[in-house]
Fold Histo-blood group ABO system transferase 2 isoform X4.
Amino acid sequence: MARLLRTQTGKTKCCSLHTVAFLLIILVLVLFGWNVSPVLWGQWLRAPPKPLQLRQGALASPSGSPSPAFHGDGWRALPGPPSSTVTFSTSFPSTGFPSLRSVMQGIRKAGAELLYPQPKVLTPSRNDVLVLTPWLAPIVWEGTFNTDILNEQFRLRNTTIGLTVFAIRKYVVFLELFLQTAEKHFMVGHRVTYYVFTDRPAAVPRVPLGEGRRVVVLEVLGGPRWQDVSMQRMVVISRFCKQRFLREVDYLVCADVDMKFRDHVGVEILSPLFGTLHPSFYGAARKDFTYERRPRSQAHIPRDQGDFYYMGALFGGSVAEVHRLTSACHQAMAIDQANGIEAVWHDESHLNRYLLDHKPTKVLSPEYLS
């Protein structure tokens, strides 16, 4: 509660020491630490940004040298990238401090709390599906979360999300639709870096980007088979986690390029480690999962074991956890290769083995890939 001070006449002098101190600190940071003009500050206060209206939904799936920097359509080159990297961006704060928008949202929340329906302990959000795993990880279904609450929590943390995608050889044709639909539906209102791994950097399309979102093009070599490309991403993601992802983003989402976003995919998916239920197997018995069944493979799972069958097209988590996952899968695939065996579903088989041994902290429903 607010603490009140009274003068000798008994009149209220100050309504809240906490609020005044908070506002003074913010003003000092803004006017001196961030070097923001008082005129711009006043203009921002008079015209605050409109709240984002997001929809909840699912994600759909159908089955040389760096290029010069693009200019126009909201794209620009950032200075000084490595020779094998091309970066395109719109306004992307370089400071480690919270953005002016997040600060102002915090100030507004201090005076007007977010209103939402009270959670009902005796009324489950869904009674037709499993919403909690036996190891107490939530399973994210439509109707089990409040987008407004989650968005506010992650905005106040100034969260940055990285989205990795591999567009090798002919698969570069899917990249434009992938990026266009991601701009409409993926982490709308949050800071996003698209990490595009490709052997054809000059073919990366120009897609208009929203505020605080950028594209980083990273040149890699392509394999002779799509299976090689699929397995290659584990070692590439593992290497770049150490080289740059740990410094640049808080979470990584790893997706296939031959997909398009159809509806809202937001911060409700974020967790230290998450996987996505395969839409063809979420109702099947474990003995019918297409796990690797040969004991010689490092991805082997016996028929009497297994929790769920996870699809390799969408997984992720914190950068540290994704680094552990991709490193372990790469090492397992290297052992298989030395033993002359290749898992039945390549990196997806090794992903399922890893998530059986290292339980995910969140599981996404098949709605995200149906």
User: Anything to note?
Assistant: The first strand starts at residue 5 and ends at 6. Confidence is low (pLDDT under 50) at residues 1-17, 33-83, 91-97. The longest helix spans residues 226-248. DSSP finds eight helices and 13 strands in the chain.
